[in-house]
Amino acid sequence: MRKIIYFVLVGLFSLSLIFLTLYTKEDKILNEKQVKDFLSEDEVLYKISKDWDKYGFNEVKPAEVSGWHFFQKLSPIDGIYYFSKEKDALKISEGSGSKATITLWEGIFIFSLNDIFHNYEINSDFLKIKQAQKWLFVVNNIKGDYKVYSYNAIIDTFLLNEKNKEITSFQLFPSLLFVYNPEYNEQVKNADLLRISTIDKIYYFDAKNENKRLLISGDIEKESKELFKIFNSDLEKKFKMYKNLSTSIIWGAKRPNINWASLAENYPFLFLNDTKKDIILKNDLSQNALDFVSSTNSKDDNFYSKNKANIKNSLDEMKQNEATYNDWIKILKNYYYLSYYSTIFQNNDNILIKDKNNFPKLLNEILNLWQADNYVTLSDIYLAYSFYWLSFSSLNSYIDLYLWNLINSKSIPKDKFWWFSFFLREYLISNIDSSSNSLNILKYMFDLSEKYYANFKWTPDQKINLLSNTFYNYRKIISKLNIIVVESFFIKKDKWYVLKDEFWWENSVQLPAGILDNLEFIYKVWVSNLTSKKDFYYKALWTAASSNIIEYYSSLSKSYDSLKFKIDIFKDYNSYILRLNLNKENKDLKWLDYSNSDNQLSVSAIRDYMSQFNQVDIGSLNVLNNSSLNKDWYYNISIIISQFQFNFKLNPNWNTVYDLVYKDSNWNTIDKFKKLPVPLDEKEEAMADLYSSAETPTDKDKYDFKNIFYNLYVNPDSNSNIADSWNPIAQTQTDDTPVAIKLFIQRELIGKDFKYISNFLPIKFSNIKVTIEWWNYIINLLNVDKSFNSLNNSFSALINSNYDIKTHSFTNMTLKIKDENGVGDNISYKFDALDISIVPSNIEVRSLSNKLKDLWFYLDTISSNYTSWAQILKIDLNLKKVFIDSQSFSVNFN
After folding, report:
1. Inside any domain, residue 189
2. pLDDT of residue 135
3. Which residues contact 562 (CB under 8 A, 6 or more apart)?
4. How far apart are CA 545 and CA 549, in angstroms?
5. How far, in Å, are 673, 675, 705, 741, 796 from residue 711 at the CA level?
């Protein structure tokens, strides 16, 4: 019977019993002593010394040394790294059960407290911290430089008065830095986190990517820096040493030749069982725990529930024998310690899924330990980000997914929400960008706030306080979001903002998928709140106790107005072109904000302007948006012209007419001009020359600017030269090219843009072809003659290119090189008449001559290396190379 019991135990006992004989030197894994030391729960103080690039940990007595770097081991996975000039800089007092108190004196301390079997309270003269979650955090307790920083901790923080009594408390979340002055403690008595963060400082600080100087104490700067190096080095070392510990032990348990005698010698109590029942219970418990730890896959709900029930039932029955029960609690702890580093992360597994049913959670629930699991996943995410593989973009993704899970689980307690909300606010203010993940986080914050507001009962004062905090949080975030939208999608030219080229394609705004929907959702939440909470909002705004609410509300409302303004730009950019503040050199610039012109719009001003036109019944003028003229910065006009009822908008910048519709004689709505913007000032300038050169009364009538409304809209056939130039149907330049297009070519191109390069590249009227497609000029340059001469060769080229009037740039330029043997119209070409493309594909007009001045060197290189079977020729002015098919040749400029 003894033999049977012996061999059953051999196969099923805990991981902590098996490790002793599993390791060989060839495996290059931990030896027996290292694993024993790791599992030891003795509290040991180590003095840390540096030997070249390695740190040595040497055991010392607390009173032996001071002014050095130390590591205080508290458990296999708990410890404190610290520097202090005092002896006995910290004191550990054991409490009841798993509780212990750590008292700090002056120094800088980095805590690594992750053990669910221990629960710590940290005290100093002005501050108390209680453990709310497994954690890594920093306490700078140097006089005049008091700080607390959380890497991945959820810290219950209490400020104390001079009598060491708690006067206020809050939770500090991951990546939040709390900088405080104990002299202000009385000022924050019973204060909420908003007031605490105003008097002291609490803000988001990314210790991974920002200067750690904020965590370092100036009085001991060198020692502080070294302490953080020690901490990071030791943490990295532990990850490497222990992350495969449990896997190796489980694998090693299957080896045939095991010296079980050493197990019996070292753990004799495991082999002296009182009853057969104890053995069966231990076997069952060990097998279930081993199955759980050894499973590398995510534990589904059925697996988790089954193992949890089995282990709990075994332990409940073991309670009949206290010694047996305590022994197996220790065995489970060893399972936990051995598997700790391998269950935190496994490669790049989904943290949220892996955390759902992990071993610490199982033990926490079975043994009814102290640790709540509301923020376990958040803590793991920040541990992965701060010290392991997680990138910032992945951090955004995981926070996004975490919040989605949190909303569905409804697990945030009422009294903790605003601390969590504060964390989200600081996270967004620091990290919000235009990505979908980032905007999702903001959406989830709205959702959480709504659920929080709706699911609990509040007193009127609590509601007002809730609202004040909401307005305060949102105004900072929406203000930052406005900045991000501008930085992400717009670029500043001179004093104006314009949409970046990559987001404006084929006459439409092209934003990354989901961005516009998310921005609209964020704005609609605000509109919805204004509607659903209207009565409460207005009541709160005029309540004496809510003196700050009006300020917060007003600021938030303006931020949302600004966001809506940008959303409107994205949704209808063609119409928004007309909300410009232009100058003559940059008529394409799109203004991003409300006009700040000193000139004010008024009914009298538009009446005077419209009075100059013929067939206008000025008495019928009605300005529909009279009450909001200077906010809208346009006139919304209703007026009778030539006995027809017209409705249109007029922007004072270049007096541009748009959104024009009218009723014909049969009261049919004519809207074919609705999407046809017409800048009247530009038309007036163009028509002035035509009018002065007109010889007949008919032509005078056609080109009289005072008749433009009749000629352009009511009777466009009577003046095709004016109407056609603004027709959205594409125009082709022929001998009958509309006069307005001819004026555009002569004035805007030959007389302005191409004047910069007339000495280098004379472009003739006949080389320019202009069409208008959907109110955009399409400009093509055809067969522009240019010679490039060297000492040995002369190249006569025909240049073809597109031209972008908005950016004043040549695009997609190509050359053909004429053969000198060609005569008259019988032109022949070199290089088998292949087009030679030019890189870069976009060359600004003022830099063209500088870019092409050495082109003959490139043509020389092509001429020297060209072969008759070539298909592609390219000149790269950036790389200073020519490409013949896939071969490249460097250009010699000597």
Report:
1. yes
2. 79
3. 482, 593
4. 9
5. 13, 18, 9, 18, 48
Burial of residue 217, with CB atoms counted within 10 A of its CB: 0-12 exposed, 13-18 middle, 19 or more buried: buried
Residue 141 forms part of a structural domain: yes
- Structure-token match 């610039």, residue found: 589
Predicted pLDDT at 8: 36
- pLDDT tens, 24-77? 333 445 666 777 777 788 888 898 887 766 788 888 887 666 678 999 999 888
Instruction: Find out whether 647 and 567 touch, Cβ atoms under 8 Å.
Output: no
CATH number of the domain enclosing 65 = 2.60.120.1440
Which residue's structure tokens are 């050894």? 294
What single-letter amino acid sits at 543?
A: T
CA separation, residue 666 to residues 617, 621, 709, 740 (Å): 19, 21, 19, 32
Final residue in a domain of this structure, among 175, 208, 242: 242
pLDDT computed for residue 887 by the predictor: 87
User: Phi and psi of 245, rounded to 5°?
Assistant: -60, -55
- Alpha helices per DSSP H over 572-650: 573-576, 603-610, 629-632
Q: CA 740 to CA 726: how far, in whole Å? A: 9
**Angle at CA of residue 719, ends 716 and 721, nearest 5°:** 115
Residue 541 neighbours by CB under 8 Å, 6+ apart: 549, 550, 553
Q: What is the DSSP letter of 274?
A: S
pLDDT confidence of residue 662? 93
Distance (Å, rounded) from C-alpha 892 to C-alpha 878? 14
Domain assignment present for residue 601? The answer is: no
Q: Last residue of some domain: 242, 275, 307?
A: 242
Whole-number Å distance between alpha carbons of 581 and 570: 18
Q: What is the DSSP string of 730-745?
A: ----STT--HHHHHHI
Tell me what pLDDT residue 300 has. Answer: 65
Q: What's the mean pLDDT in 663-680?
A: 82
For residue 536, the model assigns a pLDDT of 64
Higher pLDDT, 264 or 488: 488
Mind listing the pLDDT tens digit for each residue in 538-590?
666 555 444 567 677 777 888 888 898 889 888 877 666 555 444 333 444 33
For residue 538, the model assigns a pLDDT of 60
Domain that holds residue 155: 42-242
Pull the structure tokens for residue 353.
């899924």
SS3 192: coil
Residue pair 156/129 in contact by the 8 Å Cβ criterion: yes
Residue 227 lies in a domain: yes
Instruction: Answer whether 661's CB lies under 8 Å from 644's CB.
Output: no
Total of domains in the chain:
2
